[in-house]
Design brief:
By secondary structure, the protein is of the alpha/beta class. The protein has helices spanning 15-18, 23-33, 39-44, 64-77, 100-116, 131-142, 167-178, 184-193, 206-217, 232-251, 256-259, 262-274, 280-291, 298-307, 322-327, 330-337, 354-359, 418-424, 445-448, 460-464, 524-533, 544-552, and strands at 2-3, 7-8, 47-52, 81-86, 121-126, 146-150, 382-387, 390-397, 407-415, 437-440, 471-474, 486-488, 508-512, 517-520. The radius of gyration is 24 Å and the shape is globular. The structure holds FE2/S2 (inorganic) cluster and magnesium ion. Pfam families: ILV_EDD_C (PF24877), ILVD_EDD_N (PF00920).
């Protein structure tokens, strides 16, 4: 049986655990009797897993426990059986050495958890940056119907009556502090309130970018992504997510690859460009596409980026926080404005197509959600550059950079690692001026698990002179809340012998954004000599997860997934017992 909107009805996975009158069936049912479930319940009702990344070391996800209760209520109301499973919580600012490698660990945990347990559908509860893609990647490979609900943005308030406190504000304030333009007292006041409520970062950083594109991908309920974490409407969405998940569980449909097709990724990239979203999302989308067999490449981001203007007036590229974007109409209104660029027939877990969702949407504030002919800023938001310095590509958030640097030639100042930057950047002996090109290497996926070091600090003496942007190039990532002329994700990275490893102080680097070129202006023979002399760095990790990570992580242009995790198993049931 099949219908147009929700796809075929499939046999319940959970029936293989609970609906057999044999010894395994007895064991499974009798075990869960201790959790309050009767033989009749287990024999007749679909089962939904609630995968929860709540933790009190992760304030971005701190409301997920309450939301899980609402999801549970919705599942019970709709006649399903809820089971909540705690998964690893990746707390962006706290977890060390950097959050990024744990995305793949969470993805593995989520996939194996779903496959090993009798879930007919799963609700994914994430919020902070890496919890969203980790859950999605794992669930996509597990192949069981999924629906994603985020924790929602925080609602920070002003520290000093001035700008609202948020992570983008922190970066600006740090620059002002280093330039001697802000007092220690104001800085301390900012520290006390910058994370003043639960919820993820409230500008269009990585978390808000991932949450909004989940609506465009079709894996979240329309309108759900930007409701603040503390807003009661999020709880109502959670209950609806629970109810919806039971309908998906009962049908075994739609499966992730029936939602996450090439149209869904195009729509997500379109929205990402329109909101000036985080460059990290590029990596996450590439990895997610790899899980569902969509042949997505960096070039697709550049193709879509060339035609989609920045229409969401939100930080860091614009003025407001995401709460204003929500009250201006939210993602459905953004999608309505972007209609000419979208695949309207793409399906969603809501049962509607994207085209049906935007029919009832409305732009309420045209300063916050701009019409296509009055963008927040002209020009592309995200660009992909290539050249002899980045043969497999590198990315730049053009809308958050000073356009004066889009065509730039300058002398390289090379830093081998982040500690050297800290030690040397303010050294009066350092030969650097505003035209210099700051290079950081050995910060790629293998080199350092790709921390968010790509927004290299500027020298104090240049900040004091009013310099606010310089060209920076690295194989690192950059926080979605950050800004500046940063060429990121240079691929292949220095630690595996990419050309970034061959740059020397004083080499001329040329960036040409309109031509999408990034060149190291050194003669090929000289580069070849340097290549012959290059030695790979000694492996830092000889055991444990980081050893596994370094052996299997793919380069940034492929999404930094593990090579052995690409794709999905055909069979959603685990082997054994049956
Ligand atoms: Fe968690 Fe920004 S620190 S979303
Ligand atoms: Mg981040």
């Amino acid at each position: 049986m099949s219908d147009k909107k929700t796809g075929p009805t499939r046999p319940l996975r959970s029936a293989r655990w609970f609906r057999k009158d044999d010894l395994p069936g007895f064991v499974h049912r009798s075990t869960l009797a201790a959790a309050g479930w009767s033989r009749e319940d287990l024999m007749t009702r679909p089962v939904v897993g609630i995968l929860n990344t709540w933790s009190d070391i992760n304030p971005c996800n701190l409301n997920l426990r309450a939301l899980a209760e609402e999801v549970r209520t919705g599942i019970l109301e709709a006649g399903g059986i809820p089971f909540e499973v705690p998964l690893m919580s990746i707390s962006e600012n706290i977890i060390k050495p950097t959050s990024f490698p744990f995305r793949n660990l969470l993805a593995m945990e989520a996939e194996e958890c779903i496959r090993a347990y009798p879930f007919d559908a799963v609700v994914l509860l994430g919020g902070c940056d890496k919890t969203q893609p980790g859950l999605l990647m794992g669930a996509a490979s597990a192949g069981v119907p999924l629906i994603f609900l985020g924790s929602g943005p925080a609602t920070p308030r002003s520290a000093t009556g001035g700008d609202l406190a948020n992570a983008t504000g922190v970066w600006r304030l740090v620059d002002q502090l280093r330039a001697g333009k802000v007092s220690e007292g104001d800085f301390a006041a900012f520290e006390r309130c910058v994370m003043g409520t639960v919820g993820h970062c409230a500008e269009m950083g990585t978390a808000s970018s991932m949450a909004t594109i989940c609506e465009a991908l079709g894996v979240s309920l329309p309108g759900s992504s930007l409701i603040p974490a503390v807003d009661r409407r999020r709880n109502l969405y959670a209950r609806e997510v629970g109810r919806r998940s039971v309908r998906m569980a009962a049908k075994g449909s739609p499966r992730p690859n029936e939602i996450l097709d090439a149209r869904a990724f195009d729509n997500a990239i379109t929205l990402l460009c329109a909101v000036g979203g985080s460059t990290n999302v590029i990596i996450h989308l590439l990895a997610l596409a790899g899980r569902v067999g969509v042949p997505l490449t960096l070039d697709r981001f550049d193709e879509i980026g060339r035609r989609v203007p920045l229409i969401a007036n939100v930080q860091p590229a614009g003025e407001h926080l995401t709460e204003r974007l929500m009250t201006a109409g939210g993602v459905p209104a953004l999608l309505k404005t972007l209609k000419p660029f979208l695949h309207l027939d793409a399906r969603t877990v809501d049962g509607c197509t994207i085209g049906e969702i935007i029919e009832t949407a409305e732009v309420i504030d045209a300063d916050v959600i701009r019409p296509l002919d009055n963008p927040v800023r002209s020009g592309e938001t995200l660009v992909v550059v290539r050249g002899n310095l980045a043969p497999d590509g590198a990315v730049m958030k053009a809308c958050a950079a000073d356009p004066k640097l889009f065509r730039h030639r300058g002398r390289a100042v090379v830093f081998e690692d982040v500690q050297t930057i800290a030690d040397r950047i303010d050294d009066p002996e350092l030969d650097i001026d505003e035209n210099s090109v700051l290079i950081l290497r050995n910060a790629g996926p293998v080199g350092a698990a790709m921390p968010e070091w790509g927004m290299l600090p500027l020298p104090c003496h240049l900040l004091a002179r009013g310099v606010r942007d310089m060209l920076r190039i690295s194989d690192a990532r950059m926080s979605g809340t950050a800004y500046g002329a940063a060429v990121l994700h240079v691929s292949p990275e220095a630690a595996v012998g990419g050309p970034l490893a061959l740059v020397r102080d004083g080499d001329i680097i040329e960036l040409d954004v309109p031509a999408r070129r990034l060149e190291l202006c050194v003669a090929p023979e000289e580069l070849e000599r340097r290549r012959q002399a290059w030695q790979p760095p000694a492996p830092k990790h000889t055991r444990g997860y980081r050893n596994l990570y370094n052996q299997h992580v793919e380069q940034a242009h492929r999404g930094c997934d593990f090579d052995f995790l690409r794709g999905a198993n055909e069979e959603t049931l685990p082997e054994g017992l049956f």
